[in-house]
Specification:
The chain has about 250 residues and is of the alpha+beta class. The chain has helices at about 5-15, 45-50, 55-60, 65-80, 250; strands spanning about 85-90, 105, 120-125, 135-140, 145-150, 155-160, 160-165, 180-185, 190-195, 215, 220-230, 235. It folds into 2 domains: about 35-80, no CATH class; about 85-250, Umud Fragment, subunit A (Ribbon).
């Protein structure tokens, strides 16, 4: 008997299984062929190099791409909460500069480091208890201590005794105001008007209400700095020079 030949045949049929795989079992319980499935391999640095994701990105759909999107969404949320906020113009009260449907970007940090709203700024504010249960957008005409009067002999608004030329932003055909008024703005408050005076409900309409139509500065959400949409109207909103020569409040009562 050739014992060497028998050992050779035995060695061919009993070779060890390859790492990571179970030994094939070709006959199942019903006579059908079954193939071994690979066992789960331990992740190694080499496996990560081959594209095996680990950590948070491993569990997110899309892996690292989804993690990037999550970070971007978080960044936009923080930006909207603390820095800039979009605001859609709901009415024609600020035409011609701002039209219905325009999206403006509101700078929420403009007044957070000691600076306050200035005459001529366009601001978005919470009008609850003062204008209505909503956010509004108007132009600052008077700040704390200012005396605002309408109108002089030429139909212009006066602030601290100085007439203001509003022709650069007042709606064509509108007068400065069809309602006469003479008010002194309390400290920490704002006197606000729309540019389209004949179509704007603003501080003039609330002179006899609690607060006299003057909105507290701490109700201001931010300053409108950019028209962002439609894209064809993308432009920066600047403070007009009309109020540059208005004296300080004390000068009006000296």
């Amino acid at each position: 008997m050739d014992t060497e030949a028998q050992h050779t045949e035995r060695d061919r049929s009993s070779r060890p299984s390859e790492p990571g795989f179970t030994t094939p079992d070709t006959e199942g319980p019903e006579g059908r062929s079954r193939f071994a499935l690979p066992t789960r391999r331990r992740r190694t640095p080499a496996a990560e190099d081959e594209g095996v994701h680990t950590g948070l990105s491993y569990w997110l759909p899309g892996g690292r791409i989804s993690l990037t999107l999550l970070i971007c969404l978080l960044f936009l949320l923080l930006l909207n909460t603390f820095v800039v906020r979009p605001f859609e113009i709901p009415s024609g009260s600020m035409t011609p500069e701002l039209r219905i449907g325009d999206r403006v970007l509101v700078n929420k940090v403009a007044y957070r480091f000691g600076a306050g709203p200035e005459r001529g700024d366009i601001v978005v504010f919470d009008g609850t208890e003062y204008f209505g249960d909503a956010d509004y957008i108007k132009r600052v005409v008077g700040v704390g201590g200012d005396r605002v009067v309408c109108c002089d002999t030429e139909g212009r608004i006066e602030v601290n005794g100085r007439p203001v030329d509003e022709s650069g932003f007042l709606h064509p055909g509108d007068s400065a105001s069809s309602v006469p008024f003479d008010v002194v703005v309390p400290g920490g408050r704002l006197f606000l008007l729309g540019d389209h005076r004949s179509a704007s409900s603003d501080s003039r309409d609330r002179l006899g209400s609690p607060g006299g139509g003057m909105v507290p500065v701490d109700r201001v959400i931010g300053r409108a700095d950019w028209i962002a949409w439609p894209a064809a109207r993308w432009t920066r909103i600047t403070r007009p020079d009309a109020y540059a020569d208005v004296p300080a409040p004390d000068g009006a009562h000296g």
